[in-house]
Specification:
elongated, alpha+beta, 23% strand, 38% helix, 154 residues
C-alpha cells in the first residue's frame, strides 16, 4: 500500500485514555481496504508451507483453503493490515508511545470490516504550573535583615 494511502486503510478510530499512562485505540478496517492485501497474505502463508505431494512453497491456493480454511487467510490479512496501520495511527494521532502495543482483533469475518483494539503505553503528560508568574512573585518579595556586629565577628 502506498504511503499516501495509509489514512484510508483504517477508519472509525476512537481513543480512550486509561490509567497509568495508557491509551486504548479502537477502530476498523473496511473490507474494500483489506482485500488488496489478500495476495500478499497468501504469499506469506504459502512461501514456506510444506505439504505431502507438493514442493515447499508451491502449494496451490485451492489446496491451502481446503486444508486450512479461508479464516487463516483472513487472520494473515488482519495481521498485515494492523502491522501496516499501527505506525500511521501513532503518527496521525500524535501519540508518544512506549514499548510494544497489545493488539486484539475483536471482529474477523469474511465480508465484514476487521475491528480491532490496540492498548499501548504512552509517555505521561506533565502539566507545569505558571512558573514564570510564581518566580516573579517570589523575586518581588524583599526581606529586611540586619547583621549584628557579633555575627560578623563569629
Amino acid at each position: 500500500m502506498a504511503e499516501s494511502d495509509h489514512k484510508h486503510l483504517y477508519e472509525n478510530l476512537e481513543m480512550k485514555r486509561l490509567e497509568k499512562a495508557e491509551v486504548e485505540i479502537s477502530g476498523s478496517i473496511p473490507e474494500a481496504n483489506y482485500q488488496p492485501l489478500r495476495k500478499k497474505a497468501l504469499k506469506r502463508l504459502l512461501e514456506n508451507l510444506e505439504l505431502p505431494g507438493f514442493r515447499k512453497g508451491h502449494v496451490p491456493e485451492s489446496v491451502f483453503i481446503e486444508r486450512f480454511g479461508e479464516a487463516s487467510i483472513l487472520e494473515e490479512i488482519a495481521d498485515i493490515a494492523l502491522r501496516d496501520s499501527y505506525p500511521h495511527i501513532v503518527t496521525d494521532e500524535k501519540l508518544d508511545v512506549l514499548g510494544s502495543p497489545e493488539i486484539a482483533i475483536t471482529k474477523l469475518a469474511k465480508g465484514n470490516p476487521i475491528e480491532f483494539k490496540i492498548k499501548t503505553a504512552v509517555y505521561p503528560s506533565v502539566t507545569l504550573s505558571d512558573y514564570k508568574d510564581i518566580a516573579k512573585k517570589e523575586n518581588a518579595k524583599t526581606e529586611d535583615f540586619e547583621i549584628k556586629e557579633k555575627e560578623i565577628e563569629d
